[in-house]
Design goal:
By secondary structure, the chain is mostly helical. It is built from five helices and no strands. The chain has one domain: Non-ribosomal Peptide Synthetase Peptidyl Carrier Protein, Chain A, CATH 1.10.1200. Helix content is 68%, strand content 0%. The relative contact order is 0.18. This is Acyl carrier protein.
Amino acid sequence: MEREKIVAIVNDFLVNEFEVDGDEISNDANLKNTLGLDSLDYIDMVVVIESNFGVKLGEADFKKMVTFADFYSTIENKIAEKNA
Protein backbone atom coordinates (compact mmCIF):
# COMPACT_ATOMS: atom_id res chain seq x y z
CA MET A 1 0.00 0.00 0.00
CA GLU A 2 1.32 3.42 -0.92
CA ARG A 3 2.17 5.87 1.84
CA GLU A 4 -0.23 8.49 0.46
CA LYS A 5 -3.12 6.04 0.83
CA ILE A 6 -2.03 5.17 4.40
CA VAL A 7 -1.89 8.87 5.29
CA ALA A 8 -5.35 9.50 3.79
CA ILE A 9 -6.94 6.55 5.63
CA VAL A 10 -5.28 7.40 8.96
CA ASN A 11 -6.16 11.08 8.77
CA ASP A 12 -9.75 10.24 7.82
CA PHE A 13 -10.35 7.98 10.80
CA LEU A 14 -8.57 10.35 13.18
CA VAL A 15 -10.85 13.20 12.12
CA ASN A 16 -14.06 11.18 11.89
CA GLU A 17 -13.72 8.66 14.72
CA PHE A 18 -11.41 10.41 17.18
CA GLU A 19 -12.57 14.00 16.50
CA VAL A 20 -9.05 15.31 15.86
CA ASP A 21 -8.87 18.69 14.13
CA GLY A 22 -7.59 17.91 10.64
CA ASP A 23 -5.70 21.22 10.56
CA GLU A 24 -3.53 20.01 13.45
CA ILE A 25 -2.39 16.89 11.62
CA SER A 26 0.98 17.27 9.91
CA ASN A 27 4.04 15.07 9.49
CA ASP A 28 6.01 17.00 12.12
CA ALA A 29 3.21 17.45 14.68
CA ASN A 30 3.61 15.65 17.99
CA LEU A 31 1.33 12.63 17.85
CA LYS A 32 0.45 12.34 21.54
CA ASN A 33 -0.05 16.06 22.11
CA THR A 34 -2.21 16.47 19.03
CA LEU A 35 -4.36 13.40 19.62
CA GLY A 36 -4.78 13.82 23.37
CA LEU A 37 -6.02 10.24 23.63
CA ASP A 38 -6.44 8.25 26.81
CA SER A 39 -5.56 4.57 27.17
CA LEU A 40 -9.01 3.42 26.03
CA ASP A 41 -8.72 5.58 22.92
CA TYR A 42 -5.42 3.87 22.08
CA ILE A 43 -7.15 0.49 22.32
CA ASP A 44 -9.83 1.78 19.95
CA MET A 45 -7.13 3.04 17.61
CA VAL A 46 -5.44 -0.39 17.57
CA VAL A 47 -8.77 -1.93 16.55
CA VAL A 48 -9.34 0.67 13.81
CA ILE A 49 -5.81 0.21 12.45
CA GLU A 50 -6.22 -3.55 12.42
CA SER A 51 -9.56 -3.35 10.62
CA ASN A 52 -8.25 -0.86 8.03
CA PHE A 53 -4.78 -2.27 7.43
CA GLY A 54 -4.78 -5.83 8.77
CA VAL A 55 -1.84 -5.15 11.10
CA LYS A 56 -1.60 -4.81 14.86
CA LEU A 57 0.25 -2.09 16.72
CA GLY A 58 1.39 -2.78 20.25
CA GLU A 59 2.35 -0.61 23.17
CA ALA A 60 6.02 -0.78 22.14
CA ASP A 61 5.11 0.57 18.70
CA PHE A 62 3.29 3.56 20.18
CA LYS A 63 6.18 4.31 22.54
CA LYS A 64 8.50 4.76 19.53
CA MET A 65 6.17 7.17 17.74
CA VAL A 66 6.74 10.87 18.28
CA THR A 67 5.32 12.48 15.15
CA PHE A 68 2.58 11.66 12.68
CA ALA A 69 5.34 10.77 10.20
CA ASP A 70 6.49 8.10 12.68
CA PHE A 71 2.91 6.84 12.94
CA TYR A 72 2.52 6.54 9.17
CA SER A 73 5.94 4.88 8.83
CA THR A 74 5.14 2.33 11.53
CA ILE A 75 1.95 1.31 9.76
CA GLU A 76 3.75 1.24 6.42
CA ASN A 77 6.51 -0.98 7.86
CA LYS A 78 4.01 -3.34 9.53
CA ILE A 79 2.16 -3.75 6.22
CA ALA A 80 5.45 -4.45 4.42
CA GLU A 81 6.44 -7.03 7.05
CA LYS A 82 3.08 -8.73 6.74
CA ASN A 83 3.34 -8.90 2.96
CA ALA A 84 6.97 -10.06 2.90
